[in-house]
Amino acid sequence: MNILVVDDEPLIHISIEKLIHTCSGEETVFHAYNGHQMLAALGEREFALAFVDIKMPGPSGLEAIRQAREIAPFTRYYIMTGFDEFEYAKQAIKLKVDDYLMKPLDLKTIRETVEAARSQVLLNLEHKKNVFRNWLESTLNRRESFFNEFTGHYCGLMMVNVDSGGISPEQIQSPFQSYDGHLVSVFTEHGLMLLCFSEKSDYLLEMYRSLSAFPYPEGLTCFAASITSDPGELKASLTSLMDRSCLRVLLGLGSFYYLTPLMDIGPVKLDFCRTCLEWRAAFTARDYTAFSNCSELIVNQFYRHEELQKHLENLCSFLSLTLDRPVEIPPDAAALKEQLAQAAREFVSGSDQDSKAQSIIRFIQEHYAENISAAELSERFGLSANHITNLLKSTLGIRYNDYVTQLRLSRAKELLLSTRLSVKEITTACGYFSQSHFTKLFLEHEGCTPAEYRKDKGVKPLK
Q1: H or E segment at 206?
Q2: Superfamily for 152-263?
Q3: Which of 31, 360, 431, 449 shows the smallest number of beta carbons within 10 Å?
């Protein structure tokens, strides 16, 4: 807690500082010898309380406090005087000073004022944190919120991303623990969002400088938006942080980045990085289909755009950290595609039977309109065709071919009722090459032809 002593007599400074340190060694004491120095000190840093002499060269203590209210409204002010005059007391009351103290100050007086200030600081901090946390949570949830009495505070937003399961809570907390009194945090789907705040912009600038030099572990990355006292600008930077933090895939993990230079990065890199994070999420969720789809997109985009290939080393690090194995990106797309496909096969083969079945079923549900056979599934999932068919039979209760037919015919009925597509067009859309074969299957399962089904359900025939 910072304490400011304002008096034109050096011996008074020595006496008060000694008494403060006798009460507690946790306080930091600063000194000003006239009203001008007092106002300058209050403009540079935050003070919990100030002991102010009533008579000094230049602005009097009362005049200095009047001006100080504009600079530091949350500081507690204590008037010191050797004159027990009622007029001084009246002016002090008008200025809402916290007390009117007679010199010389004794240990009891100092202890009471310091303890009162410390209690008030804790209450103010709790209230301030609640206000800023409410703003952050409300803004993330797209609700209107305000800073109330703290409007005018300087604020900065930071996004912290954790891309490794090996990062401990202590490692996440470590860079920010010295600033606990000036920040609040909220978890989002994108990472940990921090809102830092202070009455003084210099404090936040120094915080940023310190955090930018911190040695982050590889899986921990921090992005910082510009410091501002404008809530509108702060709100806009929140959206930008969530959007641009994906760029760590190409820029490199385990670093501190300022948001402003990242705003000029174009859509090719942004889209690629978003795909990479979707790929990682699919891997974590053991979603084989999404993982495979994202793998193909990563390969196609990376080899198509030279600007992505400039970040080869950082991409390798991201892929390696996700798969927990060294990944080298080969010169040709087919080799990388096979590397990622092998990783997919391995996490499917390492799953329990239910997880394997669900991965295969999800893939079939998304690709039933394509010409996929049990043999192709075998190659894709790294399991024998016989094992796959038995696994699906035990899970679904029907054979693989019957399940595919069921999905295709269900989709056909949906298209017959909800679209004006011809039967020929629906045949192709459902994965069949022969309209006669499709019609025969439909008749066997539904007891009528596709055209009759459409007519029976009240859909007008095509003209």
Answers
A1: helix 201-212
A2: ACT-like. Chain A, domain 2 (3.30.70.1150)
A3: 449
| DSSP, residue by residue, 269-295 | HHHHHHHHHHHHHHHHTT-HHHHHHHH
CA angle 214, 132, 204 (to 5 degrees): 35
Instruction: Give the pLDDT mean for 200-214.
Output: 94
Task: Specify whether the CB–CB gap between 175 and 183 falls below 8 A.
Answer: no
Q: State residue 49's pLDDT score.
A: 92
Runs of H (alpha helix) within 3-106 = 10-23, 35-44, 61-71, 86-94
Estimate to the nearest angstrom the gap between the alpha carbon of 59 and the chain centroid. 48
Q: Residue 463 — very low, low, confident or very high, per pLDDT cuts 50/70/90? A: very low
Q: Per this entry, what is the length of the chain? A: 463
The answer on pLDDT for 340 being more than 80 is yes
**Residue 140 three-state SS:** helix
Q: How confident is the model at residue 272 (pLDDT cuts 50, 70, 90)?
A: very high
Residue 65 near residue 52 (C-beta atoms within 8 A):
yes
Nearest 5°: the CA angle 238, 240, 244 is: 125
Confidence of residue 90 (pLDDT cuts 50, 70, 90): low
Burial class of residue 16 in the structure, from the number of CB atoms within 10 Å of its CB (0-12 exposed, 13-18 middle, 19+ buried): buried
Assess whether pLDDT exceeds 90 at residue 460.
no
- Fold type of domain 2-120: Rossmann fold (3.40.50)
Which tokens belong to 182? Answer: 């000036």
Contacts with 341 (C-beta within 8 Å, 6 or more apart), sequence order: 292, 295, 380
Round the average pLDDT of the chain to a whole number and report it. 87
Q: Distance (Å, rounded) from C-alpha 190 to C-alpha 165?
A: 15
pLDDT value at 26 more than 60: yes
Angle among Cα 270, 142, 245 to the nearest 5 degrees reads: 25
